[in-house]
Amino acid sequence: MKPKDGYSAEELLNSTQGLSYNDFIILPGYIDFNPDDVDLETQFTRNLKLKRPLVSSPMDTVTESKMAISLALLGGIGIIHYNNTIEEQVAQVRKVKRFENGFITDPVVLSPEHTIAHIDEIKEKFGFSGIPITVDGNLGSKLVGIVTNRDIDFETDRSKKLKDVMTTDLVTAKVGITLAQANELLKKSKKGKLPIVDDEGKLVALMSRNDLVTNREYPFASKDTNKQLMVGAAISTKDESKERLQELVKAGVNVVVIDAAQGNSIYQIEMIKYIKKKYPELDVIAGNVVTIEQCENLIKAGADALRIGMGPGSICTTQVTMAVGRAQSTAVYRCSKFAKQYNIPTIADGGIATIGHIAKALALGASTAMMGSMFAGTEEAPGEYFYENGVRLKRYRGMASLEAMEKGGSKRYFAEDSKILVAQGVSGAVVDKGSMFDYVPYLVQGLKHAFQDMGVRTIKELHEKLYKEELRFELRSLSAQIEGGVHTIYSYKEPKYL
Question: Is the dihedral of CA 167, 169, 174, 179 positive or negative?
Fold first, then answer.
């Protein structure tokens, strides 16, 4: 028999020592194809597929409608957090479901009584200044004008009201216009913005020439049978979530994540059974899990996918504080191998900081990777940028940080009614990563190269080689880990993305 280099995943990970992503390396395969030949389509849940194996975490500094829209357009899916009221979460889901590529459905709007200074603030904050003006400054009110740079560039009095400078001779389009028709209208009018109004002249949406110029096609967009973008939402195991769930279903949510740090509980099992009985068409992601016993209970209850990870996140301190959890690579492999028997996909949640970590999670049997810190610094993540020591940052906090728990995140940790809150996470900041529309294509291309090096064209083929023990692994010593990174040079410039 021909000898093989390295070890199978079973040999590597079925030991007394838990391993993280950095503790091992994947040995190279045979290349007979180009990176662009790699197809990253994957099974997200029992009934839902994605073109890209990327999922954003249901954290209040990571996923709201902007994140969910961008990730869905790019082939992944976002899970809206539940650290909010039912109405707020439902509104976020509806924004995603209502999104039409090319139309801005929630434009910034001002009233005639606002001043040029308000436009200056918006420009500094968001980078644009073409603002529609309605009678009361709200979307859904009668459109009365628009203010662009040409209206205010040479005005020295920034306290002047917008009603004195706004353009009132407007070119508008009616609701129902197609993207192609709107594009043609913008070209003919030579305007920078095209307000979309209803029959009563009330502002419904906005189109921007800049958006059209930079607009790209999204052939890998995650869409449901109604051709709407797919979106998920988190719920807890509390009774309150039954009402939340009802409203989310009305809003068109495609999948729900029962968000609990430790998923193997009677509360989650009962919630899964309740959902599957009342909403049998709705897929349920259960978790979090790290052991076979946990997986078995949730699969038997009716879970359509499992979320794996307990304590590996960059802002999570569960393993230190609670002395409970598991090294993430070991957890992903053990849980994914068990879930495969039932054709239940798994989501590797936590501990991912590089493209290589995503590739390793998939190589250990996960179908998708869920990320928090990787996406938290992007333009589409909630929150504002700020500077610290000259570095542009965004806030990022664990849902078990005291800050998040006081707002409502304690539902995830069965601590909502506790008089004393014990933090299992921290609040911090992450570096600006720019737009998801630049970042995700970079991640995808990196993944394709990783697959090429492993000698596989698809995630399905990767998993087949994993379980046939054709995919080979090797442990890395600390010296090997250092050797595999940047070392022994005087200085270097870090790439924009790792």
Answer: negative
- 208 forms beta bridges with 193
Percentage of the chain beyond pLDDT 90 is: 62
**Cα 362 from Cα 222, distance rounded (Å):** 19
Helix (H), strand (E) counts: the chain: 18, 20
Give the integer Cα–Cα distance in Å for 317 and 418: 19
Contact 325, 345 (CB under 8 A): no
Structure tokens at 251: 């809003």
Q: Which residue has the higher pLDDT, 213 or 355?
A: 355
- Report the candidate in 117, 143, 140, 138 with the shortest Cα–Cα distance to residue 129: 117
| Residue finishing a domain among 166, 186, 214 | 214
Burial 42-77 (b: 16+ CB within 10 A, else e): bbbbbebebbbbbbbbbbbbbbbbbbbbbbbbbbbb
Start-to-end CA span in the chain (Å)? 40
Ramachandran sector of residue 176 (left: φ over 0; alpha: ψ -120 to 50; beta: rest): left
Is there a single domain that holds both residue 129 and residue 75?
Answer: no
Q: Where are the alpha helices (DSSP H) in 218-306?
A: 240-251, 266-278, 292-301
Per-residue pLDDT tens over the stretch 221-263: 999 988 889 999 999 999 889 999 999 999 999 999 999 989 9
Q: Angle at CA 81, nearest 5°, toward 329 and 366?
A: 25
Please check whether residue 108 lies inside any domain of the structure. Answer: no
Tokens of 460: 């399905």
Residues 255 and 283 in one domain: yes
Are residues 53 and 83 located together in one domain of the fold? yes
Residue 491 counted as domain residue = no
Assess whether 95 and 188 both reside in one domain. no
Cis peptide before 138 (omega within 30 of 0): no
Q: Cα separations (Å) of 448 from 39, 212, 356, 359?
A: 8, 29, 11, 9
> What pLDDT score does 444 carry?
97
Is 465 found in the same domain as 340? yes
What pLDDT does residue 217 have? 67
How far apart are alpha carbons 94 and 105 in whole angstroms? 11
Check if the beta carbon of residue 163 is closer than 8 Å to that of residue 147: no
Query: Containing domain of residue 335, as a range?
Result: 9-100+220-483
Out of 182, 214, 246, a domain closes at 214
The radius of gyration computed from the CA coordinates of the chain, to the nearest angstrom, equals 24
Query: Which of the residues are catalytic?
Result: 316, 412
